[in-house]
Design a protein that fits this description.
The protein is an alpha/beta fold. Helices cover 39% and strands 12% of the residues. The chain contains 16 helices and 14 strands. A 5-stranded mixed beta sheet has the order 2-8-7-6-5, with helices on both faces. 50% of the residues are buried. The chain binds ligand F0G.
Length: 461
């Protein structure tokens, strides 16, 4: 046997409890999809076989986390679990002060309301739906300063979440540093396909913004996944641990919003973290208006305990390698099948290129929404749209935004599905891809004002 033979890796856990899933029949799925107005967000989970809608709050907790739930201290004020969470955040992320929230968007709401004034501009490495909406509701205008490569699904750039320093500096010079309350830097960019930012670029962004006195607020929802890519791809980082890289990333920023439902392996929870005392004071005061007392925010004591444990587990190398490895496995399989996907494969899901798969549809005919519906019909696999529907309307003109990336996201929950599930998913996508010319477009029949992708209804054109 040759010495260089590639050895397989496996998940660093074994399964202790199972949740049965139901394989549905085609007629059932047709009825369920119609009732859901062709929006996978409106399906009942009972009608879903393999659920790749999102990696948010859908991950499996460890036995340690479940044990942590039993240690819940449900005191209204000063719960011991809050202090465990505060310790974990200080130890693993390095931020000084924390305000727990029920999930990420609540932290976005608080920071946006405190820092953004009417007429401000908030640059970011591509938008995220809830983040941008909270910036807009606070009177700001989001400005995309990500590198152009991020908008090209085929470009193999290893760090597609990098910020274009020229775009950022031009904006600062054009609008003035006093009109830019902060730069929002996301570690892995969801809407670009789960793509990472490099440490080198983050350091350059830090140097540039410090020159103008502009702070960086970090959307750290998937920071450990980003750290894995830095370790794997960036010169000078292979010998560092995931924990060390995560901490270095956080040290280059002034505060963070966190949806703990992703990286940090809990079903609900989040926080706002800041280093500045005055900012902390304002945030701690505001959280009592919208969430709850500052030592629980929007979380039960038991949930804060599970989160403190989840943070520690999220930066363990074997965990993150298997997590990203499973997504890569699905992506590589689809690439081998010839299905157009966003390259390189990201960390939390595989993004199908709906414009390429459905070239007969215009973007107004909602190709990604239509493709997600077709995949569900084929196999009961639930994916979601990340294209024109998610992108919403321009706040000023009321016109649709037309993003270059029109994608279906197959999002993989952490520690939930096996490789065999990934095989079933890939085979379903392949089958739909080969019959893609038969897929019709969709049109809106109902569209809510905010975050329309969650609740819109559609009909077949
Ligand atoms: N930031 C990023 C990068 C996210 O992916 C999400 C949520 C949030 C912020 C908001 O956090 O949901 O806890 O309020 N993403 C989910 C998804 C919804 O499916 O991508 P939240």
């Amino acid at each position: 046997m040759s010495k260089s033979k590639k050895r397989s890796w496996a998940e660093p856990y074994k399964i202790k409890m199972v949740e049965p899933v139901r394989i549905t029949q085609p007629e059932e799925r047709e009825r369920a999809l119609k009732e859901a107005g062709y929006n996978t967000f409106l399906l009942r989970s009972d009608d879903v076989y393999i659920d790749l809608l999102t990696d948010s709050g859908t991950s499996a907790m460890s036995d340690r986390q479940w044990a942590g739930l039993m240690m819940g201290d449900e005191s209204y004020a000063g719960s011991s679990n809050f202090y465990h969470l505060e310790d974990a955040i200080r130890k693993y992320y390095g931020y000084k002060h924390i305000v727990p929230t029920h999930q990420g968007r609540a932290a976005e709401h608080i920071i946006s309301q405190i820092l953004i004034n009417e007429g401000d501009y908030v640059p970011g490495n591509m938008y995220f739906t809830t983040t941008r909406l909270h910036q807009e509701l606070a009177g700001g205008t989001f400005v995309d300063v990500i590198i152009d490569e991020a908008h090209d699904p085929e470009n193999e750039h290893p760090f597609k979440a990098d910020i274009d320093l020229n775009k950022l500096e031009d904006l600062i010079k054009d609008k003035g540093a006093d009109r830019i309350p902060y730069v929002c830097v996301a570690t892995t960019v969801n809407m670009a396909g789960g793509q990472p930012i490099s440490m080198k670029n983050l350091k350059e962004v830090r140097a540039l913004t410090q020159k103008y006195g502009i702070p960086i607020i970090h959307d750290m929802t998937r920071v450990a996944e980003n750290a894995f890519f830095i370790k794997d791809r960036e010169d000078g980082y292979s010998h560092l641990s995931i924990a060390e890289i995560v901490k270095e990333i956080c040290s280059l920023t002034d505060g963070a919003t966190m949806s703990a439902k992703k990286d940090a392996l809990v079903n609900i929870g989040g926080f706002l973290a800041v280093n500045d005392e005055e900012l902390f004071d304002k945030a701690r005061n505001m959280v009592v208006v919208y969430e709850g007392l500052h030592t629980y925010g929007g979380m039960a004591g038991r949930d804060m305990e599970a989160l403190a444990i989840g943070i520690k587990e999220s930066v363990e190398y074997d965990h993150i390698r298997a997590r990203v490895g499973q997504v890569q496995y699905l992506g590589d399989k689809l690439i081998d099948m010839g299905v157009p996907v966003v390259r390189p494969i990201g960390s939390h899901g595989v993004f199908l290129d709906a414009k390429k798969i459905l070239p007969h549809l215009t973007q107004d005919q909602l190709p990604a929404q239509s493709l997600a519906a077709a995949i569900y019909l084929d196999s009961g696999v639930r994916a979601m749209e990340r294209g024109i529907v998610s992108s919403g309307r321009n706040r000023v003109t009321g016109e649709h935004n037309y993003p270059n990336l029109e994608m279906v996201r197959l999002t993989v929950p952490r520690r939930v599905y096996t490789q065999a599930h990934m095989d079933v998913v890939a085979e379903s996508v392949e089958a739909v891809f080969h019959e893609a010319d038969k897929i019709s477009g969709l049109r809106f029949v109902y569209e809510p004002e905010y975050l329309r992708f969650f609740q819109s209804r559609f009909e077949i054109i």
